[in-house]
Amino acid sequence: MSAIVPVSAAGKTERSGRRLTAYLLLLPGGLWLLLFFVVPIVTLLAASLYDPDGSIEAGFSMTWSWHNYVDALADYARPFGRSLWYALLTTAFCLLLGYPLAYAIAFKAGRWRNVMLALVIAPFFTSFLIRTLSWKLLLSDNGFVVDALKAVHILGSDGRLLATTAAVVTGLTYNFLPFMVLPLYASLEKIDHRLIEAGGDLFAGPFTTFRTVTLPLSMPGVVAGTLLTFIPAAGDYINAQLLGTPKQRMIGNDIQRLFAAGAYPTAAALSVTLMAAIVVLVLFYVRRAGTEELV
Amino acid sequence: MTRVGRWIGRHLILFIGLLVLLYLFAPIFVVMLMSFNAPTSKLTYTFDGFTWQNWLHPCRPSGLCEAVSVSLRIGLAATVIATALGTLMAFAMVRQRFRGRSATNLFIFLPMASPEIVLGSSLLALFVSSGFGGRLGFWTILIAHVMFCLSFVVVTVKARLTGMDSRLEQAAMDLYANEWQTFWRITFPLVFPGILAAALLSFSLSFDDFIITNLNAGTTVTFPMFVWGSAQRDIPPQINVVGTAMFLLALVFVLGGELARRRRRSTRAR
């Protein structure tokens, strides 16, 4: 964090006045987040320990049923592991596709930079459900993607894409790609071009320059992008529902189904476990990547 | 060798980038095409024939236009509230020194780092346990949307504020502008692009949200929920009309802004 320059010389009273201003500015938004983000998470924690035999009509009683977690994990270990695995694959593909795109926008697009950036965001405005439905059409058994893959023998003559893991991961990658490209672009764009030129001047080839200069300098973007892709992908159920079969079911599908069926304690226990797994993974990853400053 | 390498480096990456953009646009082309579809059967989702009918009668599927109107109203209200509250927070985060700043930073980042299913289900747990389970609808959706848009607004406006040269404000003060004048004549116009970007982002997030909305909507139907509902039965081509129209509006807005920016720059250069 930089550039906090007091506008005028700050006396002691003025400083405490400014602090008060800060709290006043933070108050409305902070209250909103407290009431509708923090309190709900606490409620969710409580709900995960309710008596699992309760119902919406009869109400739930607090019985500190820790075994809700044991039961939930025993029943839903597979979709759970699958969610994390799909999210990992999605993040890897997003990085693979997103880095060249962000790099091209930051360094190669010239005066078309803003237009290309706008084009990355533009698909957002067509509802993502509609776009995912379009993937269903694109990947369908007699669609041209399947025909093309069959023609080059990547796919067998009776092979299909729709209702496979490949389809679900394709959809996930597609949906979260902009969340990877934008932070990557933001960190690439900040890199001083002279540093890259210096790499060339010191007889490093383009690849060595990229590996030793560009890539390390873009690490904050890589970290932010992978987090913003991995986290929503792990909780998603739309792609699994529309492009997959019950065999590709993710944990989000189960949480949604259980909540809709009124099985709050189990659903809440699964939600809390998902959140906890993500927090642990993220902390571990951020520690390894060595970037403490997240935003 | 190095010259060949440089040439490849220069053009290959741009080429790959354009291919990735094409991947981002592939489904959009399908949506546009399907908006002109005249389906022969309700069960298949294939292109059967060309027609203008969907564009002439976008409201024919019952409930579609009502759902779009609900989404527009929630989107606008959520955008106004989230942008206002988030901008205030961003100013505090960048311009003020106070205790607990890094904790506040984390606090603002957390909602972005939570899976939607967790955000949605925890809000539902709150509404149900505080007795609002039977009154889910417009207001509970609005509350949820403001909540998840807020963090994105703070981050977007903060980025703009951090990159701003505060010497401009000092100069204004040196020229005897008071704090109020400095704010409205210097600070606000400079931050405005960031606020506008945050508002656009909020609106698109709100208009598009399904997972959180679906859990907290009760019987209210937003546009994404309408799409989801019809995906289980038959997909009316009019859905693609709405998708295409939203996309074209966004494109006009963004490209129009870019054109205006270029014209302004070229007149300034002259």
Please name the defining characteristics of this protein.
heterodimer, A: mainly alpha, MetI-like fold, B: 270 residues, mainly alpha, 11 helices
What would you say this structure looks like, in words?
The complex is a heterodimer of chains A (295) and B (270). Chain A is mainly alpha-helical. Chain A contains 12 helices and no strands. In chain A, helix 6 packs antiparallel against helix 9 and helix 9 (219-235) runs antiparallel to helix 12. Chain B has a domain at 63-235: MetI-like fold (Orthogonal Bundle), CATH 1.10.3720. Chain B contains 11 helices and no strands. The model of chain B has no long low-confidence stretch (mean pLDDT 86). Chains A and B meet through helix 1, helix 2, helix 3, helix 4 and helix 6 of A and helix 1, helix 3, helix 4, helix 5 and helix 6 of B.
Content-based structural category of chain B: mainly alpha
Helicity range of chain B: over 70%
What gap, in angstroms, lies between the N and C termini of chain A? Answer: 10 Å
Strand content of chain B: under 5%
Question: What's the Cα radius of gyration of chain B?
Answer: 23 Å
Helix count, DSSP H or I runs of 4 or more residues of chain A? 12
Q: What is the terminal separation of chain B in angstroms? A: 43 Å
Report low-confidence residues of chain A grouped into runs of 5 or more.
1-11
SSE topology string of chain B? HHHHHHHHHHH
At the first level of CATH, the class of chain A is Mainly Alpha
CATH architectural group of the domain at 63-235 in chain B: Orthogonal Bundle
Summed up, the domain count of chain A is 1
Shape of chain B, please?
globular
Rough outline of chain A: globular
CATH class of the domain at 63-235 in chain B: Mainly Alpha
